[in-house]
Design goal:
The protein has a seven-stranded mixed sheet with strand order 9-8-7-10-11-13-12, sandwiched between helices. It has a four-stranded mixed sheet with strand order 1-2-3-4. The chain is built from twelve helices and 13 strands. Helix 1 crosses helix 2 and helix 4 packs across helix 5. It folds into two domains: 125 residues, no CATH class; 214 residues, 3-Layer(aba) Sandwich (Rossmann fold). With 369 residues, it is of the alpha/beta class. GO terms for molecular function: methyltransferase activity. InterPro entries: DNA_methylase_N6_adenine_CS (IPR002052), SAM-dependent_MTases_sf (IPR029063), Small_mtfrase_dom (IPR007848). Pfam families: MTS.
């Protein structure tokens, strides 16, 4: 291993770029295939970044070795589900910080000049935009960029649409079919117009259009999500019936049906992708409930698609949810439940397995009181 002492005041060889918001390393050493995993782990835990100059496959092997070393110290379950959840989140954040210190240099044209490196230019351009100079990126995040690009090219099958959806980088993919099926099967209220709030890939907006709603408006705060949703409706030939807007949660006007599938867990996201899972303080959930009466037609319905995982983890109670619904001037007109079918619900090695195994996803039909 060759070493270059770089303090926080010294310039890095290129601007640091982390989609997860990881801070730039305090020091940087140049590492290659000669470095031992124990040395790399010690340096990374100390806050030192490792700029990889060796074989690309060797970098991936080192990353896996670092993962094994970190995972040996995973915390044991705590006394309560909430404590276990918070311990698990803190451990995952520490894990991400340490693994994120193994970095690679992208050239000004988004190429990666390492032995046996794959072609990354197309994936990086899709994720980061057109090349605008060199950048230093965590290898782990670059692997996520490559994986996301494969998802986008292959697409995610959505049985309710009998089609594939091609999620853009940083947009939560509709891999959990149960919530899509809830929207595909629930009885539709009389509605010429529907709003899909937090549309993401636009999958629910497309389902509503396919079910016969004449006009659907999807909104999202994320520019990446809006681009992904527009791509979805264009691929499916629904651009004449579905429009995509934002960044406001609600579009102007009222609708006979307003659908919202907010992030299911109250918590701070640590990456762009986690914004589809974690919602600090349940802000989006409460904004949907508070704004629904002003945007719902008198005989319309608001559909809230929400998992009760937060309840099993002790992060929110059912009474909290019902109180928020009532405080917004709404009533529950009905509810349809379904069990998750994703692999993690059966993974007994997951520290949150008990909560995941008990999880129920519901479509709450809300109406004005």
């Amino acid at each position: 291993m060759s070493t270059t002492d770089r303090t926080t005041n010294d310039p890095l060889p290129a601007p640091w770029h982390s989609e997860s918001g990881l801070p730039a390393p305090r020091r940087l050493v140049v590492a290659d295939d000669r470095i031992r995993a124990a040395t790399a782990h010690r340096l990374a835990c100390e806050g030192t970044g490792l700029l990889w100059r060796g074989d690309y496959q060797g970098a991936r092997q080192l990353l896996r070795a670092l993962e094994r070393r970190i995972d040996r110290k995973a915390p044991a379950p705590a006394a309560t589900p909430a404590e276990t959840f918070h311990l698990h989140r803190r451990f995952r954040a520490h894990r991400a910080r340490v693994l994120g210190r193994l970095a690679v240099l992208l050239e000004p044209d988004h190429t990666l000049r390492l032995r046996r490196a794959p072609a990354v230019r197309a994936a990086c351009t899709a994720a980061y935009g057109p090349p605008a100079g060199p950048r230093l990126v965590p290898l782990r995040e670059l692997l996520g960029v490559l994986s996301a690009h494969q998802w986008r090219e292959r697409g995610v099958p959505v049985p309710a649409l009998d089609a594939r959806v091609h999620p853009h980088y940083g947009v939560f993919a509709p891999v959990r079919a149960e919530y899509v099926d809830l929207v595909a099967r629930a009885p539709l209220p009389p509605a010429d117009t529907a709003f899909d709030l937090g549309t993401g890939t636009g999958v629910l907006a497309a389902v509503l259009a396919r079910r016969g709603v004449g006009r659907v408006v999807g909104t999202d705060i994320s520019p990446r999500a809006r681009a992904s949703a527009l791509d979805t409706v264009c691929r499916l030939g629904l651009a004449d019936r579905v429009t995509i807007g934002g960044p406001d949660l609600f579009p102007p006007g009222r609708a006979g049906l307003v659908v919202c599938n907010p992030p299911w867990l109250p918590g701070r996201p640590t990456s762009t992708l986690e914004q589809g899972v974690y919602d600090p303080g349940g802000r989006m959930l409460h904004a949907f409930l508070a704004g629904l009466p002003e945007h719902l037609e008198p005989a319309g319905e608001g559909w809230l698609i929400l998992s009760d995982l937060a309840e099993h983890l002790g992060l929110r109670t059912r009474a909290d949810l019902l109180t928020a619904i009532e405080a917004a001037g709404l009533r529950v007109a009905g509810r349809t439940d379904t069990r998750p079918r994703h692999p993690r619900s059966a993974d007994r090695t997951d520290p949150l397995h008990a909560a995941r195994a008990a999880e129920v996803t519901s479509l709450w039909r809300l109406a004005l009181r």
